[in-house]
Structures are given as structure tokens and as C-alpha cells.
Amino acid sequence: MLIGVPKEIKVHEYRVGLTPQSVQEVVHHGHDVIVETNAGVGIGAGDDVYQAAGATIVSTAAEVFERTEMIVKVKEPQANERAMLKEGQVLFTYLHLAPDPEQTKDLVESGSVCIAYETVTSPLGGLPLLAPMSEVAGRLSVQAGAHCLERVNGGRGILLGGVPGVDPANVVIIGGGVVGTHATHIALGMGADVWVLDRSTDVLKDLWRQFGRPLNTVYSTRTSLEEHVLNADLVIGGVLIPGAAAPKLVTADLIRRMKRGSVVVDVAIDQGGCFETSRPTTHAEPTYIVDEVVHYCVANMPGAVPRTSTYALNNVTLPYVVKLADKGYEQALADDVHLRNGLNVHKGLITQKEVAHDLGYEYVEALDAMKAG
């Protein structure tokens, strides 16, 4: 199979779909890889390193899209990239379609085969291709929040961990999953007073066992959520419903009543965000203020640390890239229900139930869509 790796073009996105080491592994399996020039500069891998790994370097994204059978990316394709997709071409990347009707429409019309990292499942019920970026984003959320709490950045002027004789910041984390766990690790390490809210008592018990008494855990209800958000200096939203738009757990009215200069970091923004006042931002302009509350809603947070993020992502995506290339996408999806769960769009049909529900498309089961195609 001929596999293509274009350079990411989203604002301040420096990750890349395949590392040189991944390219070498794919080539070892008998496949060819073409990489757009400078695609790996953000992770410190120049064209010469990719060539040494066995890749062919091309000068434009158009050539990558035109020549290849499968495109491997990181972020969802931008409008001009979607216009270059071909019928039957496999796209393997993050998509986050539920809150993005325009992208979904373009992918449906392209006739391509779109497999989303974020809905590939594991036998244990997790999301193995989303997890490493959730880990990175969870850790970054506390760093970003601490930075935003500084007065020069619009915050309350609070040091997250305080100092002897002065209280630390009150950090509230909504959702105790992968994002919440890693945010908790960093927030506690920085000395903050940390509260995690979740609706699963099993999740809360696991967090208690992992972090002990320094962590405060609370079963999430409307009352407890309101109480802790209003008392918070920093609120981190890390809720996830796989494939679906994130629930709006914090209303605009609640934001309006928060402390002046407090900060919200919406890690769920890729799926539409869990704060009613959230809208996607970029690393170029990461924050905005609503009712004197600083909002950090960068839609590609792990892009800020592209070397760490790319290698962590490739650790989990590479086996699937090889499987898709070795078997062809149809056989690979037929053989592996967990990889098949990643199929969101197949030649004009929506094969992801939550996306179909949220955007008003007819849902077609993946195997049925593949037979129809």
C-alpha cells in the first residue's frame, strides 16, 4: 500500500502522523510512504531523517493526497484538505465529527473511508488511540490554568500551590477519566487544593486509592457541581461521551456567577466543549474572557508539545496503520471489531451512531456500509 503523510496545517499544529521510526516499520512490512516536505520539522525530524527511514519526500500536500491509498494525519482535515480526498481513499486521523457538521458534510461528499482515532475501542472498553492525547491534555490543562491565573493574563493573581501562610488555589476537575486523572496528578504535585467530580463511584474510588487523602472526591450532582464551580479558582472540564458532542455541564449563568478572574480550561472542546460559553481557540490566541472569567479552549492542546505528543500517539497508532496496510482496510475492519468502531464515514454513509444522532444523518452499521460500498 502507498501511504501518505501530509504536513499538518491547523494553526500552531506541529505534530505529524508518522514518526521516522514508524515509517521505517511500515516500509519493513513492504509498503511505500511519501511524506510532504517539512512535515516532521515540529518534532525535530527533517526530510533527511525521513528519507533515511525509507520515505519519499514530495513538495506538496496535493501530491500526497493525489497519489496515496491511505492518508495518516493527526488533526481533522481542514477544508482545503477535505477537497483533495478521493473516493475510496482511507483517512486515518482524529476527526471529532459530532460538533462539526461542515467537516462531516465534506467527508460524506468525498466518498472517502474515514477512520477516527477517537472512536477506536479496546477489549477492555477504553479508547486506546485517544488515551495518550488525553493524558497529555490533562497534564497541560493544569499548566495552562496556572498560567492563566496570573494577573497579567487576566486571572485572579493566584499561585496554584500557594506559599506558607497563604492558601493554594482551589482546582475543580469535572470528570475523573484519563484527562481528570492526569490533571489531578499535576495539580496535586503543584500543591493545589484539588476536587474531582464524577458520576461514577467506581471512578472516585479508583482516584482515592491512587492519590489518597490529599485529593477530594465528590459525586457529581447539579447541586455539588454548582457549589464547587462557584468556589473554584480553576475549573478543568474533562468529560467525554465517545463519539458524541460533550454535554454542557456548566451553564452561562454559572459562569456569570464565578469569581472574578477565575479560569476555565475546556479539554472537551474538540467534542464541542462542556462549558456553555466555550468556543474553540488556537495556540496563537488561546484565551478569551466572558463575564470576567478567563476561558482557555485550545482545540489541539497536545500540539504545544509536539515531540512528546507525536511519539506517544505513534506508540498506539502504528499497529493499526500496519494492520490496515497489510490487510487492506476492508479485511482489517472485518477482522477487528475494535478497529471497526473507528469507522465514522464510509463512501458517503455515516457509520458512527453518535455522529449520526447528533448531526441528523441516517446511521448505517459499519459492516452493512462496507457491503453497500
CATH architecture identity of the largest domain: 3-Layer(aba) Sandwich
The overall pLDDT, averaged over residues, is 97
Q: How many separate structural domains?
A: 2
Q: What fold name goes in the CATH topology slot of the largest domain?
A: Rossmann fold
* Topology, number of strands: 15
Measured distance between first and last alpha carbons = 20 Å
Q: What portion of residues is helical?
A: 25-40%
What's the number of helices? 15
Q: What's the CATH superfamily of the largest domain, by name?
A: NAD(P)-binding Rossmann-like Domain
Strand content: 15-25%
Radius of gyration, in Å, reads 21 Å
Strand order of the largest sheet: 3-2-1-4-5-6-14-15
The backbone outline, from C-alpha atoms, is: globular
CATH class descriptor of the largest domain: Alpha Beta
Largest sheet: 8 strands, mixed
In terms of structural class, how would the helical and strand content be classed? alpha/beta
- The unreliable regions are none
Provide a descriptive summary of the structure in words.
This protein is 38% helix and 16% strand. The protein is an alpha/beta fold and 373 residues long. The chain has 2 domains: 2-119 and 306-372, Rossmann fold, CATH 3.40.50; 131-299, Rossmann fold. It is globular and about 65 Å long. The model has no long low-confidence stretch (mean pLDDT 97).
